[in-house]
Amino acid sequence: MMGSKAAIFATAVLAVLFSTPALAQTSSPPAPAPVSLPPSPAPAPAPHYVDLAELLSVAGPFHTFLNYLEKTNVIETFQSQANNTKVGITVFVPKDSAFAALKKSTFSNLTSDQLKTLLLYHAFPTFYSLAEFKNLSSLNPVNTFAGSPYTLNLTDDMGSIYVQSMWSRPKIASSVYATKPVAVYALNKVLLPMQLFSKDPPLAPAPAPAPESGASDAPSPAAGKADGLAGGKGDSTSAAYSVGAVSVANSLLLAAAGCLMLLW
């Protein structure tokens, strides 16, 4: 009897010992879920570098404007502003034909500082797309790179953008380049501020018209009239000579007849 009780007790102890790890495993807290971190932001793309001198040399007939920019070193000022991606730059570039329409003395009479100011007058120290000009026109006048006294007025007329200075009101002919931070727009006239030109700069003289080809070889009315007069005089002289010859012949015949009658 005692042996049976000992066997039952031993079996119970073994059962408890073997079941304890399972109980401990089932009663342990669940493992924490892995923490998901937000993806790191992609690095910002590097700003696109625009070489303004190269752009103007190949984009269109802008050689005169580019020569003035390089002569005055204003191209370096514009290039430095173009590299500032926070605000950028907007440049209005007159075509070569716009400069050819003005007399050369228009710019030769300017000092080096005045010429530099004239070039700075053709840019805004901020990037503006064509879509932004409509709202910008409500802020007229707009300051240029030359400073507050040198301003421009912008007008949006049914989608056509006009840039007005004192002596010219050109329309933006085309968009040469318009990707932030650089905008370049072509003009068909030079922007001339009142501060540099007290009166309307004279235009270059228009070329003389070419002579008409195939001039008429017909004689002029005066020549015909002279010929007619000469011809009429010759005819009247011949007629007078003929009448005189007939009168002499008649007189001779009458004289001969008179002599015959006397002899008879």
From TrEMBL:
FAS1 domain boundaries: 49-191
Membrane topology category: Lipid-anchor; GPI-anchor
Predominant location: membrane
Region annotation Disordered: where it falls in the sequence: 203-230
Signal peptide: 1-24
Pfam families listed in its UniProt record: Fasciclin
InterPro entries xref list: FAS1_dom_sf, FAS1_domain, FLA_A
GO cellular component, one term: side of membrane
Job description of the protein: May be a cell surface adhesion protein.
Protein name: FAS1 domain-containing protein
